[in-house]
Amino acid sequence: xxxxxxxxxxxxxxxxxxxxxxxxxxxxxxxxxxxxxxxxxxxxxxxxxxxxxxxxxxxxxxxxxxxxxxxxxxxxxxxxxx
Length: 82
Hints:
This protein has helices at 2-5, 22-28, 44-49, 53-78. By secondary structure, the protein is mainly alpha-helical.
């Protein structure tokens, strides 16, 4: 998805099509961000050390769901382009 949303980096990382993270794209397209429950990827190490595996799994599941929703929106918007 990141490659699609940046048009395969045609203008480089700092150009008009620079890469943003999933959180940014979720907010831009009106999708609930995986981070909205207070856990980010930066927290996974400490959660792992604390044995909070369920919290990690739920965060990862939210990440996958957000990616699927983003893909569906992107696919629908490109459907009319020939």
